[in-house]
Specification:
Largest sheet: 2 strands, antiparallel
Low-confidence stretches: none
Strand order of the largest sheet: 1-2
Number of helices: 5
Number of domains: 2
Length: 158
Amino acid sequence: MARTYCREALGQTARALIILALFCSPAFAQQPTQVAFNLDAAGPLPMVSPPLPELPTPHRFLDTRNRALFATVAGFCAADFAVTRANLRDGGVELNPVTRVFSGSTAGLAANFVGETAGIIGLSYLFHRTGHHKLEQITPLVNLGGSAFAVAYGLTHR
């Protein structure tokens, strides 16, 4: 008799636990919670999720800013070519060791400055493709600084 009573109590307890488990919120844990309870308010308030941060919109590589930067880079490289060529023709010496290799002829010097411009655009494109958009913008600016200094130095030391 004690065994029957125990078995019956265990069966009722098990059924009660199963029913409670079916109606409690952890049983529905795979679904998102839609209501949050505020103890100070009279009733339940809907849960408000914070707005997602806006992702930066990807820009095209040849947008207006990059076109202006690359045109300026090409202009300063052309000015550097012209000043360097004029100084070399008048008996000057090329101070840049990389450019000195190409300074034997006008075609070699032009190839050097065209290659420099293409390299800056290519490096900037590499930074664009890898998502380094600040470096993409900084690369031509650094080259502009170097070319502007070279032009100014070449003009003052004729």
